[in-house]
Amino acid sequence: MDNTVVKLISNAKEIESLAIFSIEKSTSLDDLEQIRVINLGKSGSITTILKKIATISSESKNAFGKELNIIKNNIKAALDTKKIMLEQQHEQNILAKQTLDITLPGVNPAHGTYHPVSMVIEDLKQIFASYGFSSVTGSEIEDDFHNFTALNISPLHPARDMHDTFYFSADRLLRTHTSPAQIHTMQAEHPPLRMISLGKVYRCDSDPTHSPMFHQLEGLVVSENANFLEMKALLDDFFKSFFEKDVAIRFRPSYFPFTEPSAEVDIKMPGSDNWLEVMGCGMVHPNVFKHVGIDSAKYTGYAFGVGIDRLAMLKYGIDDLRSFFENDIDFLKQF
Ligand code: PHE
Asked: pTM here?
């Protein structure tokens, strides 16, 4: 090996020990990167010496290359070890800062509220329970007999047109009112009966005041002396309880196949001049009793039906029925 080569190698070894010393002393990843660039970068000190290989005699080339590669790898290894150490330290520092303060107040989850229709349903059940009425929801899928025929709506009765029925088949349908649940009860139980049936009903209809699915409540009283006056007193008390106001009511003659006589009930809020139509009612038609095997010579009955959504609209001052079913969280949050 000629002299220049020996000198170059010892020069490189000096640089190596200096580099390893500063690597050990370094305290940041930035420092480390700087040391790498100074020594091993494109124009770093070791790289510069390595480039001299071109000027070296062929007998010394091999030994020179070998030595310098060892030096280069030593620096590289020192850099890598230190890098892992510094990274671990950095992570530990972050963790140390992230202590959990269990005395801090928590974040409360947002609370849901009852849907206005559900609140009205609960109110209605409670009011009618206080009058001694039992409550059923019945089935939303019904047959023709319970939804129509037993209610004195024979197959060719024009009232069927008003119900805009969703049919599954000629005999299977989505109930158009909650009356069929009352037919089931009258078939299964003996008078006296005081009941409400309530829940979802379906009609093929949709506009600001009609939805294809809506909620209905129907009341039924069957006893040996059920009469129109008793019904009127009951409904008068009901509307006052429900609206918690001195609501006035009036009856207008009307027609339903399942009641005779029948009436439409209007209400007027205190301070208002408008009568609002809210309910249908009447004395149970003898044909209905015949279909369920109740002796109409012994028993009389009265029935009434009301749209629950309509009651909720009036109670909360909402004018588009569809807003109940759009599930807009901002709308629902108000209740
Ligand atoms: N079932 C009737 C309807 O949905 C409502 C009603 C019930 C009317 C009882 C009068 C008596 O149209």
From this structure: 0.69
